[in-house]
Amino acid sequence: MNSSDPRLAQLTTNLSHVRRRMQSACERVGRPSDSVRLVAVTKTIPVDAMHIFLTVLGADATHPADFGENRPQQLASRAQELAGSAIHWHFIGHLQRNKVDLAVAHASLVHSVDSERLLQALNAEAGKAGRTLPVLLEVNVSGEAQKDGFAPADLEARFELLARQPHLDIQGLMTMAPLAEDPELARPTFRGLRALRDRLAARSLPGLTLPHLSMGMSGDFEVAIEEGATLVRVGSALWEDLPTSF
Ligand SMILES: *Cc1c(COP(=O)(O)O)cnc(C)c1O
After folding, report:
1. What distance lies between CA 148 and its chain's CA centroid?
2. Residues 6 or more apart from 177 whose CB is under 8 A from it?
3. 41 C-alpha vs ligand 1 centroid, how far in Å?
4. Is the dihedral of CA 16, 19, 24, 25 positive or negative?
5. Centroid of ligand 1 to alpha carbon of 215 (angstroms)
6. What would the pLDDT profile of 149-168 be if each residue is shown by its tens digit?
7. What is the biggest distance separating any 2 CA atoms in the chain, rounded to whole angstroms?
8. What is the per-residue pLDDT across 183-203, written as a single tens digit (0 to 9) for each?
């Protein structure tokens, strides 16, 4: 990379645009802007663009970048390629139980624990690796048949039992809103996740304050922030108009 790389200017513009949109959403509902973290979903961009984006972010040991990947093999290969860079890796995709070792080895936070069997497999693998793994439980708030995640009623009924995983730190909930042109259509899903989190947190189970809500993507992150998101997972809005050859 050099300073004339046109991707540097484009990424700088895109990041400041996304940050401005995040800040406006915070202001609309009276939240401090540092109450929401931007997870940059890097699944579609090449590793050299990730290097440039690290420069744009000014990532360092005290302010590591938050990068999200949705395939375990790509998470592992990129974590190895970018070893030494200040990055917190977020795993945000569907995880098969035979790949839990990759998530446990590399992820700072797994957003997408979508079943009891996966929860138990991650707990067992984290125990083997001698670490406590931070995770979020993915909830299918919208109830779409093709979506992964816990059914809200099921999670509420069985939460005490499910949450008993000594090698996991369950930090909150994650959801995906139905795909729609109008971001307002995502609001009930985000509001539902927030309400579910509030009900679970009100049980005051030890170690289960559930501070995090991972919700909102490029098309709907402002609505998600208005509804209480603490982590937004943004890809395409950060990478738009990125020159591919120069
Ligand atoms: C790809 C992806 C995102 C980011 O989507 P954009 O619309 O590109 O911002 C967020 N969350 C998950 C789970 C994803 O797979």
Report:
1. 15
2. 142, 185, 186, 189, 190, 215, 217, 220, 224
3. 6
4. positive
5. 10
6. 999 999 999 999 999 999 99
7. 57
8. 999 999 999 999 999 999 999
Single out the residue of 128, 127, 159, 156 nearest to residue 141, CA to CA: 156
- Ligand 1, CB cutoff 6 Å, lining residues: 41, 43, 70, 92-93, 176, 217-219, 233-237
What mean pLDDT is reported for the chain? 96
Nearest to 110 by CA among 94, 125, 124, 98: 94
**The pLDDT of residue 245:** 53
Q: pLDDT, tens digit, for every residue of 70-80?
A: 999 999 999 99
Q: Residue 246 above 50 pLDDT? A: no
Which residue reads 């945000």 in tokens?
92
DSSP-derived secondary structure letter, 33:
G
Give all strands (DSSP E) within 13-83, no chain letters.
37-41, 65-69
